[in-house]
Task: inverse folding
């Protein structure tokens, strides 16, 4: 009955899924409410079902990414690395709660939005609008963090499409995104409090007793401890977990975070540098891909500072949605001029560097990328080597 790695109900991976509406409406409660309702109909091992759902979502996102990369002629070399799928060999468990479900939904939203733009028949456009309403509401009720990865770009693209008339732009924006805006306001208003978390935790006691995973449970699961957290608490926690740590010994982590983010930009915008795949690779418009990567970085950055304190969520959201958007909206139009100029300069600099255009340099940057759970760390380098072995090697080098 024990999940891999000994993860129980109190763990973040499981308890985050247990948030429901038994203490009233609260953010992230839809998945837990559905699981709780199903348990009332017929008892079942909830933790096992959560893990099954999680691993199915992982397999689906891998399948989607492979299809997308093959369809667009991109090299598959990046996919096994933490930029797209964060894997912790140290815990023996693929971290990430509802993130891969959210990314799957994000792709469908982008796809439906593109179909809405190119469709001319009124009935089909109405169907696309209704589907967009349902999907965006579902996404936000599952986890509000996906807002930053999806909606800013969609609103920007709506503006680009209808910018000839502000009235038309506002009408289309309200038509397409009013349900998502309403749900977002509800999430901000009803973010819960400590008593809400206690009520939710107690509602699962029949399941805890029927399918025990540990000898003693804490007073509250880790995933429920964040209910009711303030904006200031989120910012402070992000700074404390991601930017105020040490990288190695007395070295502060923040310069390595900046280096890591710059490396990720280089790796994604130049992803065909290493040729891997059983199909012909196609040319990439590096400037347009850079435009999208830079825009998504700006749009998703509040996720790291307000809602999440972990790089292993921010980076896959950033990289995966950037590839989704470039694959579905490859044309270079409507990009702010300063972003386009910056991309041109950055890509010209890479083109003029023999080192950065070298496959060997690309490979070395990729395998030494210090991406770890909450910030840059030596543990993130050489991701397929167990961390205990890395620790021994570091101890041998620094004594």
Result:
């Amino acid at each position: 009955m024990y999940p891999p790695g000994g993860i129980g109900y109190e763990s973040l991976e499981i308890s985050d899924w247990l948030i429901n509406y038994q203490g009233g409406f609260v953010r992230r409660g839809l998945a837990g409410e559905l699981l709780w309702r199903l348990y009332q109909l017929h008892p079942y091992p909830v933790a096992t079902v959560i893990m099954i759902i999680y691993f199915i979502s992982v397999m689906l996102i891998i399948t989607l990414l492979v299809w997308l990369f093959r369809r667009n002629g991109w090299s598959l070399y990046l996919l096994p690395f933490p930029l797209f799928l964060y894997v912790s060999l140290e815990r023996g468990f693929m971290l990430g709660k509802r993130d891969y479900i959210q990314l799957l939904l994000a792709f469908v939203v982008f796809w439906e939005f593109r179909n809405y733009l190119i469709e001319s028949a009124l009935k089909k456009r109405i169907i696309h609008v209704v589907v967009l309403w349902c999907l965006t509401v579902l996404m936000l009720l599952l986890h509000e963090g996906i807002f930053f990865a999806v909606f800013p770009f969609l609103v920007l693209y709506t503006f680009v499409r209808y910018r000839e008339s502000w009235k038309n732009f506002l009408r289309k924006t309200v038509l397409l995104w009013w349900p998502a805006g309403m749900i977002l306001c509800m999430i901000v208003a009803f973010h819960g409090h400590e008593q809400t978390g206690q009520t939710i935790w107690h509602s699962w006691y029949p399941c805890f007793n029927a399918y025990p995973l540990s000898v003693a449970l804490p007073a509250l699961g880790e995933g429920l401890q964040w209910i009711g957290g303030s904006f200031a608490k989120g910012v402070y926690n992000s700074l404390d977990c991601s930017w105020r740590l040490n990288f190695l010994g007395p070295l502060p982590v923040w310069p390595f975070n900046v280096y890591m983010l710059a490396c990720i930009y280089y790796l994604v915008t130049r992803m065909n540098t290493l040729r891997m795949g059983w199909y012909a690779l196609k040319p990439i418009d590096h400037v347009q891909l850079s435009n999208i990567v830079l825009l998504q970085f700006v749009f998703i950055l509040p996720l790291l500072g307000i809602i999440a304190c972990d790089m292993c969520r921010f980076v896959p959201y950033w990289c995966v949605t950037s590839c989704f958007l470039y694959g579905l909206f490859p044309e270079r139009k409507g990009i702010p001029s300063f972003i386009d100029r910056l991309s041109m300069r950055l890509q010209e600099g890479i083109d003029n560097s023999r080192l950065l255009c070298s496959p060997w340099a690309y490979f070395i940057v990729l395998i030494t990328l210090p991406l770890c759970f909450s910030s840059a760390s030596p543990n993130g380098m050489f991701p397929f080597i167990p961390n205990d072995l890395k620790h021994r090697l570091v101890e041998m080098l620094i004594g």
